[in-house]
Amino acid sequence: MSEKMPQFPESYWLDSTDIPSYPKLEEKKQTEVGIVGGGIVGLTAAYLLSKQGVKVTVIDASTLVNGTTGHTTAKITAQHGIIYDELIQHFGKNMALQYYQAAMEAKKLIETTIRDLNIDCNYQVEDAYIYTNSDDYISKLETEKKAYDELGINGDLTDEIPLDIPVKRALVMKEQAQFHPLKYLHRLIKECENNGVQFFEHTVAIDVEYNKHPAIITKEGHRLLCNHVIVASHFPFYDKQSFYFARMYPERSYVIAVKSDQKYPGGMYINAESPTRSVRSTKVDGQELWLIGGENHKTGQGETTIKHYEALQQFGEEQFGISEFQYRWSAQDLTTLDKVPYIGSIKEGEDSVFVATGFNKWGMTNGTIAAKIFSDKIVHGKNEFEELYTPSRFHADPQIKKFATINADVAKHMIKGKLEITNDTIQGLSTDDAIITKINGKRAGVYKDQDENMYALDTTCTHMGCEVEWNSGDRTWDCPCHGSRFSYKGEVIEGPAKKPLKQIDLSK
Ligand code: FES
């Protein structure tokens, strides 16, 4: 790890906001809408519902906004990569247009909320750019521009962008936006409290049971009786045999927050090719903090994770010059088979349990529109965008191929992990490092912390039995199959796994 780089990951958003804490749910409760997950979906839905007089309770397995929402790049844009030509091909012009309109509706909802509640959250209107230096992507950007024209999207092709980096071609979408997501959500939490919303943290939901109405069951066995349940836990904690894990793939990406002597020229940027590079800035005490992101890869797969931060650092140093390195953090995103999120009834015909997942890295707009759809469905029975996102959709050709690819990749990793032979031993293990070894003839992962304490775990993922891999950047064990993540002590950080990794007693 480079000397300049902070030793531990920490999100700037989380570090610069004082989010209140809430107690654990310790008893049976009744509410109208039970929301599992205190990120942008859960909190926006709680705000929208409670201001219309609906009784809402939000529970979170960890603390509010500590998941993907606290680790985003927080771009509020309908420019979700190169997507509109593909959407027209797969869904037709009307659906593609709806996708754009939904994202713009989400942007408008965020703007209106900021205005209504007078929120100081560094909201700024910015143009969004996709740029490329690869000849292969020039024609893709040109085709995407034709899709913009067909859909009436305000955008242009250009050979120059305000950011001082080499570019062969770029596609701009005008008047998008960015903000400080947690300053925004912090105010929403306060407003929810004023509207009577109850929050419970460190409350793990493990199931939904049905009687006349659904009840969320917590790990401690408490029941939250509801008329409606919103599953907003990133990976759905409950899927009613709908196999969401086989219909999405998880990716990790990285962000570094640095200062540069260069003046930030405005705008939000992402390249079209791999490795991904994303750039935006935010003002901190009158100075620009540059957020440089990217290096996406499938969870639990690829090179040592710290190398991804180093690659971003190298990019930042070469292109802009880094005068000060302030933060580094990473996020996990889920992408669906056709890149359109799953938002709606958890299963066809089920109208009391809703799910929102698979935001394909564009959680600010997709998460906000999910919340709007849920609040409209619950209060008015319908929303104009609900059909587009229906989780039970399954249009034939392109998705089936993708489905097969995702699951073949899972099978490959399932076998690869089991066959992996390692000769490493714990005797040679340095502090703050981990190895895969064998203990009592079984594959085991051992991490040694800075005080020389060792934590040994059975590396078999408790979801479906793949073998987890060490993530050195975040000090976690990550599963290459469906993206479950575990702390070095074995606790579940991210599903679909629900049970911790088995601890191994090294003294025996
Ligand atoms: Fe499915 Fe690990 S997440 S096997």
From TrEMBL:
GO terms for molecular function: 2 iron, 2 sulfur cluster binding; metal ion binding; monooxygenase activity; oxidoreductase activity, acting on paired donors, with incorporation or reduction of molecular oxygen. It comes from the Bacteria. SUPFAM superfamilies: ISP domain, Nucleotide-binding domain. PROSITE patterns: RIESKE. One of its GO terms (cellular component) is cytoplasm. InterPro entries: FAD-dep_OxRdtase, FAD/NAD-bd_sf, Rieske_2Fe-2S, Rieske_2Fe-2S_sf, Rieske_Fe-S_prot_C, YhfW_C. Coiled coil: none annotated. It holds the Pfam family Rieske. Residues 417-508 form the Rieske domain. Keywords: 2Fe-2S, Disulfide bond, Iron, Iron-sulfur, Metal-binding. PANTHER family: RIESKE 2FE-2S IRON-SULFUR PROTEIN YHFW-RELATED, SARCOSINE DEHYDROGENASE-RELATED. This is Glycine/D-amino acid oxidase.
